[in-house]
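For the sake of transparency, this paper describes our internal protein records without simplification. The remainder of this section carries one protein's record, kept here as part of the documentation:
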Amino acid sequence: MKFLMMLAALSAGLMLGSPAQAQDNKIALKLFGQNILEGYNACQFALWQHNRNPKKDKYSYVFFAPFNDGEELPGWMKIGKDVIALSRVDRIRAGGQRIEHIRLYEDKESGHRVLMEFKKQHLSGDDIIIDDAKLTIIRKGRFPFISNTKGHISCPQLDHQSAADAPAPAPTPSVQQARLSGDAISLSGPQEFSGLKGVPSALLKALRQQAPNCEPQNTPGFGERYAISSDMTLWALPCNLYARTGTTVFMVALNDMPQHGVVLPIFDVDSSEERQEVPNPQVISRSAVLSFTDWGQDDSCGIHWRYQLRAVEGEAVEFQLLEKRAKTSCDGKVMEPASFPLKFSARP
């Protein structure tokens, strides 16, 4: 509501002036295409003009934000000849697998703000399809510019087809393959807590019993919790601090019995041993995917993991390995962990 009141006040102020002043005060929004995206084809939040198709039209995009390990990076918009970077500044978070009704983005350097209103949306597999959205672009001293759009939040490089429809990928000698069990789920948006504030004492007691090497009391970091359902919560508890990283332990608790929290183990495809601490984890709420990287002696080698929290028999959940990538040569050539050579892949 505050955003809408601000927009109304700004609009009223800008409507005063002569026709010549109006011409000077327009926001010169431009459409852009693959020439700006530079072939980016990973997870993305994209909006395009409502009567255009990015697969057919050379210029169609109004807004584009890439994701890196589940984190939405600043979005791009073209104003005149400049590509500006807009960061999200509101704190509204939608529950479940959907996008919020309103979002607010800002570029402090150029002074642009973008109010996004999402009117219609639906799910297609793991993708959120935006059927109808309105963008209001604001800059002090300029008329607000309104753009009607469509779009999606999607991971094009992932296989969203069902097991019955999707052809099996061609195996290679170096890549292990397996099938996932149980059912995919989604989580609510994260709710942050500082240190151990908000963590039930009974849950911490269960943590000490099941993960005795974890020392959350010595970790002044932030934790998060996610609603799995109305009855169950996933807790991401800060665990230990090391020279290069901090670790997290994931627990599940029933909301009416938090004293019975359970640490979720993480298993490797090449070993029966379980791990409990994961370094610098990233969680994608809508697909319940956890990713993290075990770095080698420097940032040019390591192992990248992606797990998915899935519902299994017995009204339980467990992390199942989706993907394992490894770069064993510490050759000084730095690359994104998601581009490491593939060693293991699982599908429904």
User: Anything to note?
Assistant: The mean pLDDT is 82. Residues 102 and 117 are 5 Å apart (CA to CA). The chain has four helices and 25 strands. The two ends are 42 Å apart (CA to CA).
